[in-house]
């Protein structure tokens, strides 16, 4: 009687008994897994008061739920699932899909530890975010932000958590790796009527005074870094470049400084330059001006 009923159902719906049984087992498996998910989350929400922790647990359990369902459904539907190689291949594929971002971040963590593109304490820039590295974890690293609405690369006080996987996808700049110094420039615009030759000598003098000791340290750093990186600087002495702009003569001081001391050195150099300029009546800082000319009376300002 039972066999006749099974045959009748098979003929009526056009699905074999084995397939019907597999569909039933699949439905039960999904129901049981989601029921377990519900129970576990209820316990977590009851025992954990921090919303962030609850969220992270929920994400982790959702990943485990997908892996578990892939395993169970695979066992139900694939007749050759007893093969360990097939099992591991399908399981690996399921894990790779479900945990794609986590795997990428973990691989990024391995790369950071192995190749050391940066370490804790380094100042870096990646994907438009700049800051000092304060923590490196398995899935993300943390920086204290610099710049943004604050001038001269000073700290904003914000912590930014960045996925480790970005080290593969985005360009990474390290301010302090190897060379330990950066080139900084200060542009001073003086009027066309100023004695730009004297102004240039004064700026050069100030730059050299503030570079005392830096050049020798930088040479030693370059010598050490050149063993690992292709770094070659022949001239490390501060230099002043001359350019003509719309409103006057631009004198640009280029000098080496510690990445974290950029604003401090700018402040000290500017104060010395202003002090020197105040002693020279033939040097004036420029600003945007409009000049008018009269055919009859000559030039007027």
- How many independent structural domains? 3
What structural class results from the helix and strand content?
alpha+beta
- Output the helix-strand order: HHHHHEEEEHEEHHEEHEE
Kindly, what is the distance between the CA atoms of the first and last residues, rounded to a whole number of angstroms? 114 Å
Mean pLDDT figure: 82
Largest sheet: 5 strands, antiparallel
> What is the overall number of helices?
9
Give the strand tally.
10
Oligomer: single chain
Proportion of residues in helical segments: 40-55%
Based on CA atoms alone, the radius of gyration comes out at: 34 Å
Low-confidence stretches: none
**Outline type:** elongated
> In percent terms, what proportion of residues is strand?
15-25%
* Biggest sheet strand line-up: 4-3-2-1-5
Describe how the helices and strands are arranged.
Blueprint: H1 2-13, H2 17-47, H3 51-77, H4 84-98, H5 100-115, E1 123-126, E2 129-136, E3 140-146, E4 155-163, H6 166-169, E5 172-174, E6 182-190, H7 196-210, H8 214-225, E7 239-245, E8 248-257, H9 262-278, E9 292-294, E10 298-300
Antiparallel strand pairs: 1-2, 1-5, 2-3, 3-4, 6-8, 7-8, 9-10
Helix pairs in contact: 2-3, 3-4, 7-9
